[in-house]
Amino acid sequence: MALEPFATPQQMADRSQGAITATTHPFLDSALKAASKKIRDYCRWHIAENQPLTYKRSAPSTADVWLPAMQITEITSVIIDGTTWDQAAVDAVEFDPDTGWTNLRGRLIEVGYTAGYTEMPEDLVDLTLMIASRALGSPLGAVREQTLVSSITWSQAGVNVAGGTVLLAHEKTDLDDTYRIGLLP
User: What does pTM read for this prediction?
Assistant: First the structure.
């Protein structure tokens, strides 16, 4: 299932005060999708929309199950080592909605659960628009263009590095604090 980008073309038009139009810019949709994918890939989970998911593990250990998501709203089904749990047992599963930790253990595990933000967090919309605008601001990957009478410096992600669809260090730090799944002790 293709996920929607975190921001819309109209939001880009509004943010850029019409410099990037919602309907006539040929690469706006792909830039918003690429920026959203970059964020999702870095954070290691889909983030939004809230949706049903399935986690499967076939491992030689019986370590606790950590579901690869945050904002977990419910666990809907559990199969451990071939045994399907009844609804009362599923309802009794302990889990941390912010970290994905559960009290489930077993070698062969399949867990159905629902996770993700129902409403798009404003900071992710803003970050998506920023990343996409950087990519659109340096369409040919150029950093600088100059003639005898004019000089243009294009969007840059670093010294002599064209904008592109990249996450900058401070953006990664912001994502780490709120949205990125990491290895927990």
Answer: 0.83
